[in-house]
Amino acid sequence: MILIFVGLLKEIWHTFDDASFYILLGVVFAGLIHIFIDKDKIAKHLGKPGIKSVLLAALFGVPLPLCSCGVIPTAVSLRKNGASKGSVISFLISTPESGVDSIAISYALLDPIMTIFRPAAAFLTAMVAGISENLFGKKNDNIGIQQESKCNYCDEVAGEKHNHSLFQRFVSGIRYAFVDLLGDIAAWLFLGIFIGGVISYFLPQNIIENYIGSGFQAMLFMLVVGIPLYICASASTPIAAALIAKGMSPGVALVFLLAGPATNAAGILSIRKFLGKRSMVIYLLSIAICSVGLGMILNQIYRVTGINATAIIGKAGDILPHPVKLFSAIMLIALMINSIFQIKNKKTCGR
């Protein structure tokens, strides 16, 4: 029993050690993006229904570090500021499916092809959904908007006011990155790494390939698992990496990486409430169809190039010297603990 526990801890630590530097890098970039992007200014570009507003919403959403919890109130705010329903749907998909933090951890734990294809797939899915909303959604655009719900991701101001100095804005962005953002994803990230470690340690090699498969049926299975599940883009990455290492095709893993972060039961109900039933159906169908279609394309890319995803998974972590990885892991643990306590203190003071 002790040997099993020690072996599991080693597997979890190995994943965390490989990912820590890239998580820190992604969080820093997320803080910088947060400080220089103002959601009120974004809303000004998203007001008119059409391809341009959908395109801009998808582009704005890809690098932003918001989970499916945080993106709902942010989308409501955009809607209140005049953003069209098509652009809001686009933003609701591209934002939780991607983000600079999840891109960084994808590079660490997956491979370069997945690192590029994942945000590209999020962008394309968002475009399809937004354009579909413009074409097939209700023309009456006056669905009642509900009051914004609270979320640590969304309580902060989207970018400091421009009368603050550059240094003040930088400090505020770093504080947001290592307190608010890291505090929000810390528990989920640990859970994802823990589940990934359990899969890596306990599941026999190729069991996924033998019992679940790598084709259309496996993708439908991942949709069923991913759509109601609440998991952020960063936390889903170590799970996907472990599944690929055990024989899951990259295309099936991509379905999980797209559907899991973009949807959850509470988020779906919220979309139904403030955008309407038809928009909710367009949102879900777009995610389901694009996830499966893009998953098949991704499998074909690996097949044509002759690249074995299992063989190259997580190799980016080997590039860094061991002292750098160890220092990053220790620093990340300290920062995660600090961020969780600070958020708890904020909630306590706010009572």
Question: How are the elements arranged and paired?
Answer:
Layout: H1 2-36, H2 39-44, H3 51-61, H4 71-80, H5 85-97, H6 100-109, H7 112-136, H8 152-155, H9 166-202, H10 207-211, H11 216-226, H12 233-245, H13 250-262, H14 265-275, H15 277-305, H16 309-312, H17 322-349
Give an account of the 3D structure.
This protein is an all-alpha fold and 351 residues long. The chain has one domain (2-349). It has 17 helices and no strands. The chain has helices at residues 2-36, 39-44, 51-61, 71-80, 85-97, 100-109, 112-136, 152-155, 166-202, 207-211, 216-226, 233-245, 250-262, 265-275, 277-305, 309-312, 322-349. α9 runs parallel beside α12. The longest helix is centred in the middle third of the chain and has 37 residues, at 166-202. The protein is globular. The N and C termini lie far apart (44 Å).
How would you state the average pLDDT, rounded?
Answer: 83
Strand content: under 5%
Q: State the total count of DSSP E strands.
A: 0
Outline: globular
Q: Given the structure, what is the number of helices?
A: 17
**How many strands, which pairing sense, and closed or not: the largest β-sheet?**
none
SSE series: HHHHHHHHHHHHHHHHH
Estimated helix fraction: over 70%
Give a short summary of the structure.
The chain is mostly helical.
Keywords, separated by commas or semicolons:
351 residues; mainly alpha; globular; 17 helices
